[in-house]
Amino acid sequence: MKKIYPIDWKAMHPDGMPTATDQYYVGVANKVLNILKKSDIDDVFPYDEAIRDAALRLTAWFEDICTGTGFWRTVNETCQKRYGKPLPFYDTSEYYPGEPNPQDVALLLWDITESWNDDRFINPENPSLLMTATKIFDIFDNEFEYAPDTDELRDYLANPSLGIDYWATRRAMEWFSLSGYLSLHSRIKLEDALYSIRNEREHDILFYATTLINVITNKHNILSLTAAEWLSAVINKPFTIDHSRLLNRLYTVVNRYATTVQFRDILTGDNVIIEEDSLDEDWLERFSNKPGTTVGFGFIQFNDKCYQCGSIFTEPASDYIEEYKEEQRKEDYAKSLVKQNHDLFYEVSGGKHIVFLKGVKELTDFYTKKAGITVTPDFERQLKNMVAEQAEDGMLALMATPDQGFLIISLSIPAIKAPDNPFYNEDYAKKHASDLILCSDAIDYSAVCTLLENNYLPDAALNSLKGYDYGRKMLQDNAQFIVDYMFAEHK
User: Fold this and answer.
1) Is 77 exposed, middle or buried (0-12, 13-18, 19+ CB in 10 A)?
2) How sure is the predictor about 332, in pLDDT bands with cuts at 50, 70 and 90?
3) Which of 35, 173, 271, 356 is buried most deeply by CB count within 10 Å?
4) Do 359 and 307 reside in the same domain of the chain?
5) What is the pLDDT of residues 180-239, one digit of tens each?
6) 21 in any annotated domain
7) For 34-43, b where at least 16 C-beta lie within 10 A, e where not — what string?
8) Sheet-wide strand order for 355-358
9) CATH code assigned at 260
10) Domain containing residue 480
11) pLDDT at residue 373 tops 90
12) Into how many domains does the chain fold?
């Protein structure tokens, strides 16, 4: 495996900028790399480059601590606010914020290994992981007194334009999302998405749009925060980014002004003013002075101004416009139903958070007789298939969430210790209740939060070499962090 070079280290910095401390931190990174190469956790990395990447990220954390740039400070402060302690999982009775701590190294190493293995949950107290983390901490502890500050990095984050100027802020967000030491999970998700569209027509445009959407919206990181939320906390300056209209909608051109272009949503009639410098120059020249031209794009609102993001297309065919209108009407109607069904569920369930049912008939009876919802033949077929494929002995639970309305749960029903769950089984729950916390495919984020808030998963435990009781306490004490982390994209 090749060693780490200055060019590798510079890629961790904004715009790949060189700094006066590069040579020093490259030396530290290679010491960390030597530990990782010889460790018993090397098998969790898919290839050698991932091990080098881990060494770079761990060393970048050390640089953050030494320079005081604030990313790990944000981890400590946010964890304290959310979970009542500066870090999850580990004992922090002896913990020194702003200095290297063995708990810090262990958590970051866990995050890195979990990012490469998101199909399974790695126990944060895995002995090999902790042993490796301790050896890496010893390197940082020995270096800390002499380690130099990276002034260039501190100056970059002290730029007064951050949080005020859109372009400077967006570049900083891109750095955090694509190269920052806490962004591995996000980057892996992006690479998977880009790989899936590599053979599409106009893939260059799709690559750009997909990358930008990832930068703005992705929460796959240790705090499940967007890049904007991270940056705002690090620079201690509030700014807002509303990305609710990031996906393409159709508009017509209304007018062009000195620095902006006005558009009107073809469905709602709402006007939106887009900053001209975010629009393609060729498009501006050809179409911005042609009122009535139909154009498709998405945009974000940064503080009080709006900027077009991603791809932009002009004058779609008339049949596309009609299909778009119909699809948007269906989507808007579906959203209205979600809110109605959420409220309806609590009304017809008598205020219960969860209702237990067995088989398709009880489920359809709840829909039709209690909720007054028509079950179409096609929907009934879908229910039958789901029950046949997923529901053990036909056991089901029904909940309601703000994002989905009615939510059917078909997995791990005997693990839910709700007062009126006739299927609850303690032995089963000890083995499988954790599935509802660790598997984001099994249940909705807000639904699992409801289960935790009402103590409906008290048997959930991590597999631990120290036994069930220890593993149970470990999971219960850190359940909300784990859910926030595992369900980041749904949060």
Assistant:
1) middle
2) confident
3) 173
4) no
5) 999 999 999 889 888 888 877 667 888 888 899 999 999 989 999 999 999 999 999 999
6) yes
7) ebbeebebbe
8) 355-358, 395-401, 405-409
9) 2.40.50.140
10) 330-490
11) no
12) 3
